[in-house]
Amino acid sequence: EAQVTQNPRYLITVTGKKLTVTCSQNMNHEYMSWYRQDPGLGLRQIYYSMNVEVTDKGDVPEGYKVSRKEKRNFPLILESPSPNQTSLYFCASSLKGTNTEAFFGQGTRLTVV
Amino acid sequence: GQQLNQSPQSMFIQEGEDVSMNCTSSSIFNTWLWYKQDPGEGPVLLIALYKAGELTSNGRLTAQFGITRKDSFLNISASIPSDVGIYFCAGSRTSGTYKYIFGTGTRLKVLA
């Protein structure tokens, strides 16, 4: 089954404790992206990757890091989480950048206390 | 960062009614996408638009890429209860990239 898998689905952590949210796709897509979703603000792009070892900032990259060492994985790293990073996070993948973002993961709800 | 203005923010409609929502921007876009998000799930792509003036249908859904390239519209005909959810528009200003800006969403509730 074609899918984008995020882990964990839910995470509660404390301020300053480094964490990683994993994202994996099994469709051999070149393009992957991370979003955060907040009430009243919709989806905002954090980082995206057009291919292995190619990443770029989205609209709200501050406080986040990503890596793309292999095509299928695109982890989101929070080196020192803060409460304003409490949000619902989505990973997405697409075959081509000028094509559509056809597949989203099921989301990771992160709470930073 | 910029966000798209999407309206209405929410709407209640009766089953069987038609629904219209739109998305506007101060900037020109090259691509418009429409997504639906069900509770507890990630967004699912409904329709993609690539040319100004383009009108595309997907079942009971029809979307249009505005002539000015600064807006897009989504219509749902003969709504049914499973149409409930949040509908998002998304636009891309630059072709060949993967950077999309999303609207704030329209929450649709259908009364049976």
Helix and strand string of chain A, N-terminal first? EEEEEEEEEEE
Biggest β-sheet description of chain B: 6 strands, mixed
Q: What is the terminal separation of chain A in angstroms?
A: 36 Å
Mass-distribution shape of chain A: globular
Oligomer: heterodimer
Kindly state the percentage of residues in helix of chain A: under 10%
Give me the Rg of chain A, rounded: 13 Å
With helices defined by DSSP (H or I, 4 residues minimum), what is the helix count of chain A? 0
Helix count of chain B, per DSSP? 0
Total beta strands of chain B: 11
Overall 3D shape of chain B: globular
Mean pLDDT of chain B: 90
Question: How would you characterize this protein structure?
Answer:
The complex is a heterodimer of chains A (113) and B (112). Helix content of chain A is 0%, strand content 50%. Chain A has strands at 4-7, 10-13, 19-25, 31-38, 42-51, 54-57, 65-66, 76-78, 87-94, 103-104, 108-112. In chain A, strands 2, 4, 5, 6, 9, 10 and 11 form a seven-stranded mixed beta sheet that branches. In chain A, strands 1-3-8-7 form a four-stranded antiparallel beta sheet, with no helix packed on it. Chain A is globular and about 35 Å long. With 112 residues, chain B is mainly beta. In chain B, the strands form two sheets. In chain B, strands 2, 4, 5, 9, 10 and 11 form a six-stranded mixed beta sheet that branches. A five-stranded antiparallel beta sheet of chain B has the order 1-3-8-7-6, with no helix packed on it. Chain B is globular, with a radius of gyration of 13 Å. The N and C termini of chain B lie far apart (39 Å). The A-B interface holds A 4, 31, 33, 35, 40-45, 48-50, 56, 58-60, 90, 92, 94, 97-102, 104-107 and B 1-4, 6, 31, 33, 40-45, 48, 88, 90, 95-105.
